Amino acid sequence: MQTTAVKDMRKKYSDYAKLDDGNRYELINGVLCVMEPGAAQAHQGVNTELVRQFANYLLDSPCKVFHPPFDVCLNACGDDDTTVVQPDVVIVCDPSKLDGKRCNGAPDMIIEILSPLSARRDMLVKFNNYMKAGVREYWIVDPKDKMVRVCILINGKYDFNDYIDVELLPVSVLEGCEIDMKRVFDQ
Q: pLDDT tens-digit profile of 5-46?
């Protein structure tokens, strides 16, 4: 989803938490960004199918799947936290990171679904923030090209592979979990 910088003044979580104007925001490195409303039908279809497959796999598991609007405070979410994101799909396996409203600290897995306006941000800015925060697995899903970039955190850096026309895509952080990408992209 595309975001637009609102102000160039450094903000923190306490500023973000006070927002109540009907818009959705993310806070990236202290910059407050309004998220553009309404995702394309392809984006929604891919998101829904991913969430469905993860939710089915995670039944009776301590791991939980979330989708927007759901805040992820990458830096443990104190009042001084300057990065709060709303990824398309979030997997959290440590229940102590959940406080009933958000995830505090790096989730186990994040998925961002590209749109023409969000591609640069998801592939560069968020990529670096997720790596720095310690997100163990990050998928960047491109519905247009039916491609998935799978980034696995190894020794503090992402090692990544691109998958095109793959039917079943294994999830590194969830042993035995495979996502049916044919179903995901046939939305």
A: 544 478 888 888 888 888 888 888 888 887 767 668 888 999
CATH of the domain at 91: 3.90.1570.10
73-79 contacts, C-beta under 8 A, 24 or more apart: 73/13, 73/102, 73/103, 73/104, 73/105, 74/105, 74/106, 74/129, 74/130, 74/133, 74/135, 75/105, 75/133, 76/104, 76/105, 77/13, 77/102, 77/104, 77/105, 78/13, 79/12, 79/13, 79/14
Within a domain: 129: yes
What is the domain extent for residue 88? 38-185
Cα–Cα nearest to 145, from 54, 46, 64, 50? 46
Query: What is the value of pTM for the model shown?
Result: 0.90
Burial of 17 (0-12, 13-18, 19+ CB in 10 A): middle
- 187: tokens are 């939305």
Helix or strand or coil: residue 115? coil
| Residue 26 belongs to a domain | no
Distance CA 52, CA 60 (A): 15
Give Cα 10 to chain centroid, integer Å: 22
